[in-house]
Design goal:
The protein has 7 helices and 3 strands; from the N terminus they run αααβααββαα. By secondary structure, it is mainly alpha-helical. A 3-stranded antiparallel beta sheet has the order 1-3-2.
Length: about 170
Amino acid sequence: MADKQRTDAVDVILQQWRRERPDLDVSPMGTIGRIKRCSALLQRELDQVFTAFGMTTWEFDVLATLRRSGAPYCLAPTALFQSLMITSGTMTRQLQQLEAAGLVSRMANPNDARSMLVQLTAAGLELIDRTVTAHVANEARILAPIKAAELLELDARLSELLGVLEPGLA
C-alpha cells in the first residue's frame, strides 16, 4: 500500500492519547479506529443507494440474502437471521414489514410443519436485482481511486483480520 501522506481524524485522536498517556502504545487504536471510521463512512455512502430504491440496509440485506440463495429464493427464517447476525425477534418484525410491502411471502415449510419459509415475491426479486446492480456500481465508484494491487492487498489483510475475529468460519 502507498505510504500515508495525509493526516486523518484518527491521527488526531492518537496524538491526543500519546500526549495524555505516553506510557501506552496506542497504535492498535489507529488500526481499529480507522476500520470503524471507514465502516461508518462506507455505510453512509451505501445507504444513499438503498434510499434511492426505497430501502434500508436491513431490507437490502434480507432481500439480497434471499436472492443469492438461488432459485426459488426461499429460506427458513433461522437461516436468514443467522446469516444476517440478528436476533429472531428482530427478524420476525422485519419479515412482517417486507411481507406487508409485498417483497416477500411466508409459507408453510413442506419439510417441517412447525416452521415457515420466506420467499422473494416477483416484486422483491425485481427490486433486489435493480438495487444490487446499483449497489455494486456504487461500491466500484467508492473503491475506484485505489489501485487494483492495493485493493487486493487490503482485501487479503481484511480477510486475515476476519479470520481472527471469526475463527469458526475458516
